[in-house]
From TrEMBL, chain A:
<dbReference type="InterPro" id="IPR015854">
    <property type="entry name" value="ABC_transpr_LolD-like"/>
</dbReference>
<dbReference type="InterPro" id="IPR027417">
    <property type="entry name" value="P-loop_NTPase"/>
</dbReference>
<dbReference type="InterPro" id="IPR003593">
    <property type="entry name" value="AAA+_ATPase"/>
</dbReference>
<feature type="domain" description="ABC transporter">
    <location>
        <begin position="2"/>
        <end position="225"/>
    </location>
</feature>
<dbReference type="GO" id="GO:0005524">
    <property type="term" value="F:ATP binding"/>
</dbReference>
<dbReference type="GO" id="GO:0005886">
    <property type="term" value="C:plasma membrane"/>
</dbReference>
<dbReference type="GO" id="GO:0016887">
    <property type="term" value="F:ATP hydrolysis activity"/>
</dbReference>
<dbReference type="InterPro" id="IPR017871">
    <property type="entry name" value="ABC_transporter-like_CS"/>
</dbReference>
<dbReference type="GO" id="GO:0098796">
    <property type="term" value="C:membrane protein complex"/>
</dbReference>
From TrEMBL, chain B:
<keyword id="KW-1003">Cell membrane</keyword>
<dbReference type="InterPro" id="IPR003838">
    <property type="entry name" value="ABC3_permease_C"/>
</dbReference>
<dbReference type="InterPro" id="IPR025857">
    <property type="entry name" value="MacB_PCD"/>
</dbReference>
<feature type="domain" description="MacB-like periplasmic core">
    <location>
        <begin position="48"/>
        <end position="277"/>
    </location>
</feature>
<feature type="transmembrane region" description="Helical">
    <location>
        <begin position="724"/>
        <end position="746"/>
    </location>
</feature>
<feature type="transmembrane region" description="Helical">
    <location>
        <begin position="319"/>
        <end position="340"/>
    </location>
</feature>
<protein>
    <submittedName>
        <fullName>FtsX-like permease family protein</fullName>
    </submittedName>
</protein>
<keyword id="KW-0812">Transmembrane</keyword>
<dbReference type="Pfam" id="PF02687">
    <property type="entry name" value="FtsX"/>
</dbReference>
Length: 225, 844
């Protein structure tokens, strides 16, 4: 599904140059659940942004389903992204002006799903994350755990092949965190590939494999199963 | 242009969509956008309020300007034969000088009818006649009405013009000399409500006009004011004919209120007719005149705007139209700048939404579209309010400017189209930049909160926001400079030494020149101790149109004629108005003369300007000399007056002749010891009404009369309009500034808090904010001052007597704009400065 080799990313500001990714290479197979760990600032989020086609690498290759996507333009990236990739963020990133239902519905609008079909699919997935009863609430009216469940629902409503999760439990207490991890595991069992950044060894144990990073490079890989 | 660009953009978007496997559902997308928009607007109430108010006011201004201009451009285009109807105009060529006019002598219409049987119709009108009206059937038959807008029209009138009759038969009116056609307005005024909507019952009633009875033969729907021949009452031309038999045969003399309209048949071009008119004038005009004069057809719909031949009624000066358009654009610009400023500062708040939407697969154009739609929704709301506001504006306008336009807001296709186009233009102007900025955010950064603070200070070297704020200040300062200069010029106008004393004189309108009545009136009022002098004349010293003529020395050829103003006065004129005599003597009782068709000899006064123009070395040298007036009369100069402003103040003093002519009395000047003495005024009115029982008494102190009626009409309108626009645009600008500072203060709350924690006082912080703006105001002034100087210099060129542009005006404008800005800025920055620092730091 994903194969990156010698991926580089450098941030340049007026004063300093930060090498966020330094010749990073690894592979993720279809259906895998991979955890990425490492100290703060080692480039995990940068990696995820590039995998999610939100950002360009400066050098190296990125094959997504055997297609080189490292130099895709804005239109192609948006297209690939909306059909194939779902995101879950630490800070939930729901749109405050839209209700739960409308937030989850949004990706379907961008992919052009018909209204009736949209309703069906949104309700289905809201049911699955057990938030159906709050469908007409606004994000501010929900607890953190509930918000993250909505975010997960939004990430999967389009049936993406890949889910990228950046510290999904970072803002949650352990109960809520476990619930979200349970959800991700279920999704993975149904065939979705997952790449998750986490600081928690406990959460990492849900995955099949842990990639440990330091200063933009992988240091070790632990295979858990 | 913009509209095309926008359409092209939309088409590209649609084309783009087609290429994809699945098209994002446009309606779902739109409804999603509109949901976010409405909720966003609701959340940022202050912002929304500022934007909606600004846009509403400016769109309303644009609507007013549009209605005004549309009114200007649609004169008389509603007649079914408008495209084939022409007014006969003349060119009069003497030497190198050509004069133009839209009027012809009285026999022309009838002769055209005989000589050009192929013409579909010929009709003549004599407009703007004055009448005093009595209603015999009314309860109070003593009650008098006066009407200024009476038009003599012939029986062919309705064959050319489509004015609608509410009662009476179009084909059968204005044929006899004793009938009259009223408009609904007058019928209601004369007969009251009980006849409203049953005007057939008014037909056949008799009314008295200028002491003669007329039978009502028709009631007209009120004429639209965008007609050159709008009036309130039609009298039959036959009535005019029977009282003016000689005039009807006079091919030479023309009157600027008499017009002839012809309707050409379909197959007869105006060019053909124009050629044929050469033979026509050669046939009818005496040889010398036939050489000078040519007649041409002028399209009816061009009459109002053609400044060369002059409108029939009034022509709106193009400077007024340009001023209005400029003002509309300025107010609009201010509102757009507000919008852009607020939208860009606010965009920081919405970066997250952009990041999320992009992450979920939104394309850049979709986001752009979304933000444009947001702008459009706002503009749409503002437009709806603007229509209501414009309606109110127009009502106020009508009360203000009744003598110029009669404007109403009619929601028709054209105004909706205008609003739609205006809306798109505003959307594009105001919405494009913020949409571009917002849609350009990179999702990864936006979600991380990386888009921030950077642009919140005005210290950074260059930013669009700075340019916009400076632009706003430039506009504000220009407006303030303009207002101050216009106000000073007008004040100068009013207070200028006119060469006579305009205070202390009561101006009374006189209905005729019957000498016995005038004498009776004079003798009655001079008995009052408060009345010092009384003078009867064709008009007060500063008054236009008292008759023009030519003067020359007896030995000089006719080519040396000097155009002069001729005032009909009496032997009390100089005393009453306190005009100084430079040489010779005043007019005496036995200088009185009544002009007739034959040559006359009489004594005159001339002003100093005429002395110079005639080539006399000094006023004393002119005394006793003869001059020729209008190539016919011989006049002896008995006195020379100091120059006084005899024509409008925009113009220089013109050569002027004063003589004791009894033919034309329209004004009494009454010099009093105390001008606003109610008892004296009452006494004068009683005396007047005793002498003229069938007329309506009208009086006004001379200085007030000068303000209201005489010469400053255009300047007054411009000034009043100017003031309204200036206030509106400054308020809108301040609101924008207020909103902007509000956002910047919030953005900088952390900085402010840290400064406070480190010991800065609230005063220091307010100062810090203000000093940043001071810079911008200074830069704006560097632009505004020279621009204002140029603009005002060229405006002042239009006045023969004008103020000098002193630096004080500019400094004042600078200080005022500074004051306004400081006030606005401190309001918000004080709020930020006094906020509890701990609170905002904890939020981090
Ligand atoms: N937009 C950016 N501009 C400059 N430097 C950045 C930017 N984003 C991340 N960095 C730097 O790149 C490095 C990696 O950041 P990040 O991928 O966010 O780390 P992590 O998610 O592992 O904490 C850090 O040193 C960070 O400061
Ligand atoms: Mg991170």
């Amino acid at each position: 599904m994903i194969k990156i080799s010698d991926l580089e990313k450098v941030y340049r500001t007026e004063e300093v140059e930060t090498v966020a990714l330094n010749k990073l290479s690894f592979e993720v197979k279809d259906g895998e659940f991979v955890a990425v760990m490492g100290p703060s600032g080692c480039g995990k989020s940068t990696l995820l942004n590039i995998l999610g086609l939100l950002d360009d690498p400066d050098a190296g290759s990125f094959l997504f389903n055997q297609i080189e996507v490292a130099h895709f333009n804005e239109r192609k990236r948006a297209d690939l992204r909306k059909h194939n990739i779902g995101f879950v963020f630490q800070s939930f990133n729901l749109i405050d002006e839209l209700t739960v239902f409308e937030n989850v519905e949004l990706p379907l609008i961008y992919t052009g799903v018909k209204t009736a079909e949209r309703k069906k699919r949104v309700e289905e997935v809201l049911d699955k994350v057990q938030i159906m009863h709050r469908r007409n609430h606004y994000p501010q009216q929900l607890s953190g755990g509930q918000q993250q469940r909505v975010a997960v629902a939004r990430a999967v409503v389009n049936h993406p092949k890949l889910i990228l999760a950046d510290e999904p439990t970072g803002n949650l207490d352990s109960n809520n965190g476990n619930e979200v991890m349970q959800l991700l595991t279920e999704l993975n069992e149904q065939g979705t590939t997952i790449v998750m950044v986490t600081h928690s060894e406990h959460d990492a144990r849900y995955s099949h494999r842990i990639i440990r990073m330091l200063d933009g490079q992988t240091v070790t890989e632990n295979i858990l199963i | 242009m913009l509209w095309i660009l926008l359409m092209a953009r939309l088409l590209a978007v649609i084309r783009d969509n087609k290429k994809h496997r699945k098209t994002p559902n446009i309606f779902s997308m739109l409804s999603n956008y509109i949901k976010t928009t409405v909720r966003n607007l609701r959340r940022n109430k202050v912002n929304t309020l500022i934007n909606i108010t600004g846009l509403t006011v400016s769109i309303a201004c644009c609507i007013v300007v549009y209605v005004f201009i549309k009114n200007e451009k649609t004169f008389d285009n509603f007649h079914s034969k408008a495209s084939r109807t022409y007014r006969i105009v003349f060119d009069d060529k003497t030497g190198n000088n050509i004069e133009h006019g839209g009027y012809v002598s009285f026999p022309v219409a009838k002769a055209l009818r005989i000589d050009f049987p192929q013409l579909e119709n010929v009709t003549q009108v004599y407009v703007r006649n004055y009448g005093v009206i009595q209603i015999p059937s009314a309860n109070d038959t003593r009650k008098l009405f006066d009407e200024q807008e009476i038009t003599y029209a012939d029986e062919y009138f309705f064959k050319t013009f489509d004015f609608q009759l509410l009662a009476g038969n179009k084909d059968n009116i204005l044929k006899s000399p004793d009938e009259v056609v009223l408009t609904k307005r007058l019928a209601d005024k004369f007969f009251g409500k009980e006849y409203a909507d049953a005007y057939n019952r008014v037909i056949g009633k008799t009314i008295i006009i200028n002491k003669k009875p007329y039978r009502i033969s028709g009631v007209l729907k009120d004429m639209p004011r965008n007609s050159n021949i709008a009036c309130n009452m039609l009298l039959p031309f036959k009535d005019f004919e029977r009282n003016n038999a000689a005039t009807m045969q006079n091919w030479i003399d023309t009157y600027s209120e008499h017009y002839v309209f012809v309707t050409l048949p379909e197959n007869y071009t105006p060019q053909q007719f124009d050629k044929a008119l050469i033979g026509f004038k050669n046939k009818h005009l005496p040889g010398e005149y036939a050489k000078r004069i040519t007649w041409h057809p002028q399209l009816l719909t061009k009459v109002h705007t053609d400044e060369m031949y002059g409108g029939t009624y009034y022509a709106t000066p193009s400077v007024l139209i340009i001023a209005f358009i400029t003002m509309g654009i300025i107010v609009l610009l201010t509102a757009c700048i507000n919008f852009i400023n607020l939208a860009t500062v606010q965009s920081l708040k919405r970066a997250k939404e952009v990041g999320i939407r992009k992450t979920l697969g939104s394309r850049k154009y979709q986001l752009r579209l979304q933000f444009m739609i947001e702008t459009f929704v706002l503009v749409l709301m503002a437009s709806a309010f603007a229509v209501l506001l414009a309606n109110w504006f127009l009502q106020q306008f009508n009360q203000y400017l009744l003598f110029i336009v009669d404007l109403g807001l009619h929601i028709d296709f054209s105004i909706i189209l205008f609003l739609a186009i205006l809306g798109l233009i505003i959307t594009f102007f105001a919405g494009y930049y913020p949409a571009k900025v917002l849609s350009g955010y990179e999702p990864a950064k936006a979600l991380k909160g990386g888009i921030q603070a950077k642009y919140t200070s005005f210290k950074s070297r260059f930013s669009l926001r700075k340019v916009l704020v400076v632009t706003q200040f430039v506009v504000t300062q220009l407006l303030i400079i303009g207002t101050i200069v216009v106000a000073s010029q007008i004040k100068y106008f009013y207070s200028k030494d006119l060469g006579y004393d305009k205070t202390g004189v009561l101006n009374v309108e006189m209905p005729g020149n019957d000498e016995q009545k005038l004498e009776l009136f004079r003798q009655t009022i001079v008995r009052n101790a408060n009345v010092r002098d009384v003078s009867f004349s064709s008009g007060p010293p500063t008054s236009a149109g008292n008759g023009f003529g030519n003067i020359r020395l007896p030995e000089a050829p006719a080519a040396d004629n000097i155009t002069m103003e001729r005032k009909f006065t009496d032997n009390n004129y100089l005393k009453t108005y306190k005009i100084q005599l430079l040489a010779g003597r005043d007019l005496w009782e036995n200088d009185k003369v009544t002009l007739s068709d034959s040559a006359a000899r009489y004594n005159i006064l001339i002003n100093n300007k005429a002395v110079t123009a005639l080539g006399f070395a000094s006023p004393e040298k002119a005394i006793g000399k003869n001059i020729i007036i209008n190539d016919r009369d011989v006049a002896t100069i008995v006195g020379v007056t100091k120059d006084f402003n005899n024509a409008a103040l925009q113009n220089e003093v013109a050569p002027c002749v004063l003589f004791y002519g009894t033919n034309w009395v329209s004004t009494a000047g009454i010099r009093m010891n105390r001008i606003n003495d109610a008892a004296t005024n009452d006494f004068i009115q009683k005396a007047w009404e005793a002498v003229y029982p069938d007329n309506i008494y009208k009086s006004m102190p001379l200085d007030e009369y000068m303000h209201k009626k005489a010469f400053y009409v255009l300047e007054d309108i411009m000034y009043k309009g100017f003031k309204i626009f200036v206030v509106l645009s400054i308020i809108i600008g301040c609101m924008g500034l207020y909103g902007l500072i509000g956002f910047l203060a919030v953005q900088r709350q952390k900085e402010i808090s840290i400064r406070k924690v480190l010991g800065a006082s609230a005063k220091k912080i307010v100062y810090m904010f203000s000093i940043e703006f001071l810079w911008l105001i200074g830069i704006a002034f560097l632009v505004a001052a020279p621009l204002g100087y140029l603009a005002m210099t060229s405006w002042l060129q239009g006045f023969a007597y004008r103020i000098n542009l002193s630096p004080v005006y500019f400094i004042a404008a600078f200080l005022i704009s500074l004051l306004i800005a400081t006030f606005t800025v401190s309001f918000q920055s004080i709020k930020a400065a006094v906020a509890n620092p701990v609170k905002s730091l904890r939020n981090e």
